[in-house]
Amino acid sequence: MKMEKIGSDASTVHKISNRFITIEILELDGRVLQISDRKTGYRFLSERIFSLAARSKYPYGITTWVKTGDVRDGAAGVLSENALGYDVRLSAPLMIEKKKNRTVITCFTEKNKLILEKILEIEENAPYFTYTTRLINKGKKRKFQIEHFFVWNSDNHRNQISFVVPYENGLDELRFPSYDELDCHAIVPVENWAAFLDSFQKSAVIFRFCGIHRISRYIAGNNGQCAGYSPEIALEKDAEIVNSHRFYIIPDIRKSSSKSDEIERIRKNLLFLLEKKSAISVRQTIEDRIATLVPLPQKLIRKQGQFKIDSELSIEAQSAEKEVELFIRQMKIEHGLKINKKSGEKKIKIILQPMAHPQAYKMEITQDAIYIAGTNQSVQYGLQTLLDLCTKSGKDLVLPCCEIEDWPEIEMRGMLMFPSGKKWDILLKKFAMGVLTRMRFNTFMIYMAPGSFIPEKPVEGIIPMPDAVEEYRLKNLANELKDMHIKILVCCSTKHIVCPSCQKKETEVMCEFISRIIDIFRPDFINIGYDEMGRFNPSCKCNPDAKNHQAFVRSVSFFHGFIRENGSRASIWCDMLFRKEGDTLGWLDDPQWALDALPRDIILNDYEYMPDVEEYPRIEKWKKAGFDVICTPWAIEENILHWAISARKYGADGILGSSWAEGPSKNNLGYIEGLVWTGIIGWRSTGLDISGIKNRIKIISERISERKWEKI
Description:
Elements: E1 2-7, E2 11-17, E3 21-28, E4 31-38, H1 49-55, E5 60-68, E6 95-99, E7 102-111, E8 114-123, E9 128-137, E10 142-153, H2 154-157, E11 161-167, E12 170-175, E13 186-187, E14 193-198, E15 203-210, E16 215-220, E17 224-229, E18 232-235, E19 240-250, H3 261-273, H4 286-291, E20 299-309, E21 314-316, H5 321-335, E22 347-352, E23 361-365, E24 369-374, H6 376-389, E25 391-393, E26 396-406, E27 413-418, H7 424-436, E28 443-447, E29 453-454, E30 469-470, H8 471-483, E31 487-491, H9 504-521, E32 526-527, H10 548-565, E33 570-573, H11 591-597, E34 603-607, H12 618-624, E35 628-632, H13 637-650, E36 654-662, H14 672-683, H15 690-705
Parallel strand pairs: 21-22, 22-24, 27-28, 27-36, 28-31, 29-30, 31-32, 32-33, 33-34, 34-35, 35-36
Antiparallel strand pairs: 1-2, 2-3, 3-4, 5-10, 6-7, 7-8, 8-9, 9-19, 10-17, 10-18, 11-12, 11-14, 13-16, 14-15, 15-19, 16-17, 20-26, 23-24, 23-26, 25-26
Helix pairs in contact: 5-6, 7-8, 10-11, 13-14, 14-15
């Protein structure tokens, strides 16, 4: 450990250095400016931070202030009578002590029976230093707001710094915009870490904290910007609160660190977080790409070397032309690389062959060639994995040499959405190319009403809506999505028809609509609704004494029979079969009678949206009763995961995500994160840590929301 003392009595700098970092302590007229500095000039300032940060060459600062009472007016609050820590002289001389293999710097201030200690510690051969604050209340019980501020030079770094903060189940990035755009965000983590990222120096300062914190972001006038922890607490007399921050210095987050396993883990997490690259440009390695791959294949064996992709790539794919054409278009939009399928030395060779699992594929990437084996459908999934593995290396696009074998855990994976707007069929086709195929969906359910399309021949009672699409265009859409191995299903509602015999006109219109839909899409099944029916009145002229469960079965069975005669199957939302008496969304007087009376070739769409429900054993009940079951989660990752696990455990036939939101349309994409989570979890839920991939999903969703898929 090396120590130096520079300056006069009025202004003294103390430098304490180990192999990795330097702590500089500046005594100025009895006030303390705390500066930590790695050898290339990475610094922290403290105390008069706002006035200094704006004109200082040092980019960063750290300080702690204490406000009493209910003062919550930002920087001005620390200037109040009771504030402590801002522009307050030390109550005793600065202490610098050497203790075994570490040096401890302590200063404290006292005002209005409050004591604030600030302690800096630097250890021999440690790539970090520790900053601890200790607040003691010597007076009566009072409310406090402790503000740990992290500040940077607004002139030089206003749009260049990211401040990364942890969620409870992952990481999120708070990117600080310009002064005029800044607003406030807050989350409450426990014992985690955060970081400053400097896009100028490609470096990072990571700090771990413990104590009671509330993370917020603030603006300090137009002279500086800061982020801060601001816990609001109350302390009894003689009570104290201690907050500790450990700061790790990483000179270049692109290079692996041999300093400690802990720092290397954090560095990799930062690279993972920064794949979005909106706040800092970071070159990602192939190994980083493999580590962040979602979904992770069933089998992945890394081999030495890499495969370079360029425009001279040759693709051999007899009888898989459509899958290759999709891959080429996706490569162009995602990576800007135009593949001309020219003959060349490096090749992608596709081998069509039956697999044990119909959606399984095998892939081998060598330095000279890529081999993908499987069915037409599974080869498409292998090509999507190639896209996921593509890594930018300088001007090159490279893939890791490896062996991969993969297949989905749930056979049917779909999403329900409400496409709308003019020419929504064109938007849906592009959405399928750019999003649905990338998420490996093989099913897409569209919510439609009788007026959703323009029939080739007018139908009495069906009036096309303003955004209706011609029937022939929907047929083309169905064929185009079929080429992408995506089946179209339709959801509509017939639950308002309680008695088909009495409601003849409504029944005729709905039947004509359903028959046209079957002719257009040839769907495996049509969902006809029957959810949340309320406490409906089942009486009608032909059967005035019918019970509500009898009317329910009568109506469902009628449309089931009509759909079966036209070559498809009916499905219903099955919540009325398990809702209990008194449920605000309705109930059947005898749900077991209804279950026993329903035709067994009806598909039950079971849904529930509470993320804290971890298992759905009623799937087993439906399966034992002879029904096929499709699980329908909401757009929340915990809910999707729990449904997927139950689907595998109890043998459900598929998963169909829902958000009941418009999209894709010109102005709306619905709950994109829910769609992405459904695709990822539907493919693989075994051993999945949703907290570990949450930020990756957020990045994927944001890229989709940028609407690049429309350019396909």
